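anyone else get weird line breaks when pasting these?? whatever heres mine. first is seq + tokens for prot A
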Amino acid sequence: MDSPLPSRTPVPEGRQHATPDPRPGAPSRTLRIRAAGGWERFMRRSEMQPEDET
């Protein structure tokens, strides 16, 4: 059972797969991360500040 291994084809240097473009109208990953951070800050501030009771 002396079968040689298949030969490997050389691959181009650098990135193999490009990141997919977001759908039209969809926010980018960077924007979603920024929005999540802003939402966390907003929630923390709302927990610290007492609500005005009118």
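and prot B, same format (seq, then tokens)
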Amino acid sequence: MMARDKSKKLDFKYFCKNDRFIDFLKNTEVRKDIYCSKEAFISLTLALVILFTLTVAFLNGEGIEKTSANLKELLGILIGGLFGMLGFIIGGLALVVGTLNTEEVKLIDKKDKFKSLLGILFRFYFVGMITAITIFLSTIAYIFLLIRLEFQWYLVVVFTFILLFFIVFSILSAVMLMGSCIRLLFVKISVSNAMDKLKK
């Protein structure tokens, strides 16, 4: 079974039949960004630092009422900002895909580089999904603060850490999409040069 998986040709035809998010996630290296990338490491570090700071602020007499009020205000602003960022990611993907023409995609596929192209494009989809998850988690946190539910302390810490990680990771990944756009430019230049050689 594994031998067949390794030998399958990840070309345009394959991805036409396997075009779900989970298919792209399994067949590209983008999934590693969430646990094995500089963005993940920085997100992990900053999440721990922010969590420590919030814990110290709470224990040093800020009080649960004042802390909750400040966090609700911050989350409200954050959720609005994340929706805006999600819109830019979707718009960016539409613009990037629009720059590719049929001849370029066919040549990339012929050179067995379609998986590489898909990896660049799928990163927009992936970051958009992470941003959507972050919005969902932030909304849950906002509702919990609004209705003042009582939870075990360790559950609050774990949830807060996960939320902070996703917030930082979403922001960093959105910024890193600029690198994906630059890499796509290199791909287009390479394809253009190859097409010029074919015409000669």
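btw re prot B: The mean pLDDT is 85. Helices lie at 2-7, 12-17, 21-27, 38-62, 64-98, 102-110, 114-147, 153-199.
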